Structures are given as structure tokens and as C-alpha cells.
Amino acid sequence: AIALPAYNSYIIKSEIRTAQADLLALSLNFENQYQRTLSYPVIDPATQAELEDKFKGWKPSAKNFSYTPPVNTSDAYTLKATGTGRQAGCNITIKHTNERALSGCQYADGDWL
Asked: Rounded to an integer, what distance in angstroms lies between the CA atom of residue 75 and that of residue 64?
């Protein structure tokens, strides 16, 4: 009776950490593009499939999240992971300034990687 809720909490936190790592890896792809061309890639509107096609080396591991750049210009971006399924309501963002936010995530203490 005690172990099951603790295990569930562990699984949910693990999924959030995986989504954070996926989002960080995606931001590194945007930064790499910026270093090569002096502008961020503009993918508007972008779907997760378009992001995976643009960045061949990026494949997200978290299955309960979808990834999109809701704000994306040649000189700025904000990337977002939106929870689905049991992670519904969980939103994780990272901006080109490395500003990171976490909201609505169950069992999350607000810490980012």
C-alpha cells in the first residue's frame, strides 16, 4: 500500500526529467543552427514530426509529451513540451536565453535540470 504510490511518483518524476532532457537537446540543436548560420531556424507552425525531420539527430524519449516551438523567429525561440496522458497539464519551456519554466506538473518540485 505504501510502495505503489511512491513508485508512481518515481515514474512520473522520471518522465518529467526525460522530457526536460529532450527539450534541452532540442534547444542545443537550435543553438547549433544559430552558430552555423547566425540565425535560429524558423519552423512555423511546427509539429513534432517537422522538428524531427529538421534535426535528424534529435529523437525525443519521453512518450507522454509533445514538443513544439510556440515562439520561433530567426533571433529568438521558446521551446515547449506539453504533457499528454497521465502528464496532461504539465508544461515545460526553455527560451533562447536559457530561461526555464515548469508548470502544472504532478510531483514536480519546480527544479529543472
From this structure: 30
